[in-house]
Amino acid sequence: IDQCSIAISEREFLSSTGNFNFVYTEEVGNFSFITTLGGQYFRTSDDQLGYSGSDVAEGSLTIGNAAERNFDADAPFNEALTNGGIYVAENIGIKDRFFLELGVRVDANSAFGEDIGPQAFPKVGISYNISEEDWFVNAIPTTAISYAKIRANYGEAGLFPTPFSRDRLLVVNPFNGNKALTFGNPGNLNLGPERTRTIEAGLDLGALNGLIS
User: Fold this and answer.
1) In whole angstroms, what is the distance from residue 120 CA to residue 105 CA?
2) Residue 6: pLDDT above 90?
């Protein structure tokens, strides 16, 4: 009789997200205001299990009647990550020429170290529509340059740590027929996001009544 074996892998992955966004606009004289308030939440969980059996009856779908049963050394595997954040931004316009935008986003993440609280990521931007000025319109025909804007921005963003990387862990490995403990992840109570800072500056131009930009 041929010896049969069976290997089974199971995985449950669940992702949930939610967000809201509120925008309010107002004009007061030569000033315009656009206020944005929002929030975002997401959570992912990943559960994996693997096991196998050898010398099972032909046609078996489970390892219930296997003569030898084994579990995957890398399973069970459990991982979960939760993040929540809110953001607020204000765009202030002056005479439809000058614009100033200020904003900040605050995030809290389950992978942050115990000594790290919510993290703030600010942004600021300015722009100037030169083509709205009378001296520009009188100096350059709109058929040549129909639109011109100078802009500059600064912003910060964060890359979240991987789950459990903040935790100090011990690894249990079998050795010579007995369980043995070895050092695993060293952990870091001050573990926070990897920050990225970006500076951008540019000039937007439109020519030939907007045919070229």
Assistant:
1) 6
2) no
